[in-house]
Amino acid sequence: MTLRVWKFGGSSLATPDHIAAVSERIKDRRKHGDDIVVVASAMGTTTDHLAALADSVNPTAPARELDMVLSTGEMVAAPLLAMALHRIDVGAVAFTGAQAGITTTASHQVARITDVRPTRIQQELADGNVVVVAGFQGATETAEITTLGRGGSDTTAVALGVALHASEVEIFTDVDGVYSADPRVVSSASTIDEITYEEMLEFATVGARVMHARAVEIGDQYQIPIRVRSSFSDTPGTLICGNRTMETNQKVRGIAHNTDVAKVTVLGVPDRPGVAAAVFGPLGKHQINVDIIVQNVSHDGATDLSFTVKESDLGKAQAVLEEAARTVGARGVDTNRKVASVSVIGSGIQGTPGVFARIFETLASNNVNIEMISTSEIHVTCIVGEGQAIGAVRALHDAFELDRV
To answer: Which residue, 39, 49, 332, 365, has most beta carbons within 10 Å?
Structure first.
């Protein structure tokens, strides 16, 4: 008997008809004798509606209460799916994250899973039931409800897969798998059959929203395969694993872009030891992540320090940085919301001659100006004007012939 952990996203559970279709899919797999644990996301855009509702009541609501509100979407979806299974004579029981044994840190809205004690899940499986777990959530040791961040149901599924020793975790969504670029932007984007954890993590962190980044991290840490596939077809999807079956000549696997980016420049920073720590330390204390960092050449004892943050964090970051700038004696803070990141991703691209040249030649020939650059072993990320991002993605996708992946 095989244990399967399946996660269904919000689009897969958006309506009662969608829920019924998912329940039939589960019933069909049960006929093969498999045990199934299902992780349910909130229906459709429920989480967005709950967030908007909370914002209308209090735009600066305490994180604890906000987590209690946001977690209810999955708490509705999970028992509804269990009810749909009962209707077609499949035994099922629904659990909240806490009831499923998921313990987290106390960092509301961005909690991390610290332990999974799946005793109740295992008992229900032994009794012949399908177990449906509310994703995106858990609880602290003191029973405070927490959420794992947007897309956190993926992390719930992979963590449960590890705890239950599943052979594979399947993430069901509204697309056929991981694409070589956003198919809404590049019509010729192709589905990638296999991708490494490292490559997938890059996709997740630079804008592709197919998988939650921490889910990929857990998969990599415990070497549990993750398959991303469509809820609406039987296509095999994309397998995320440690190593692809064979090395290909195509080092570039895909192009990702992200518009939730803002560029910040702290002007006239005194060029002396400890100043960078004084600038970035307060950002860390306010849980504001910094990405690409560029420091200009010093002139007359001062330099400009540029970096990127999420555009959604810019308001909070600007307030923090203006205070930091006064503290270190900088000239001021300049911000730019009208930027985006475009990333070329693939294992080993840094060690492959010609890749960097092709990237920069392609962007130059399409009149795309690069404002900042970041590189690693498996990605090259360029910060460009927001209005140029789509054209850059399409041009790079064509340049690396990714429609043939």
So the answer is: 39
Q: Where are the domains of the chain?
A: 3-174
Round to whole Å and give the CA distance between 160 and 145: 18
Residue pair 67/97 in contact by the 8 Å Cβ criterion: no
DSSP for 114-181, please give it. Answer: EEE--HHHHHHHHTT-EEEEE-SEEE-TT--EEE--TTHHHHHHHHHHHHTT-S-EEEEESSSS-BSS
Instruction: Extract the tokens encoding 396.
Output: 């790079």
Q: Global pTM?
A: 0.86
Sheet holding 137-139, edge to edge: 113-116, 102-104, 137-139, 145-147
What local confidence, expressed as pLDDT, does residue 250 receive? 63
At 99-125, the pLDDT tens digits run 999 999 999 999 999 999 999 999 999
- Cα 338 to Cα 207, 241, 253, 304, distances in angstroms: 16, 36, 27, 19
Can you tell me the distance from the alpha carbon of 380 to that of 208, in angstroms, rounded to the nearest whole number?
15
| DSSP three-state, residue 264 | strand
pLDDT of residue 302: 85
The token pair that represents 192 in the structure block: 């990638």
SS3 for 277-300, per residue? HHHHHHHHHCCCCCCCEEECCCEC
Which tens digit of pLDDT belongs to each residue from 195-246?
Answer: 999 999 988 887 667 788 899 999 999 999 999 999 988 889 999 998 765 5
**Annotation: CATH topology of 3-174:** Carbamate kinase (3.40.1160)
Length of the chain: 405
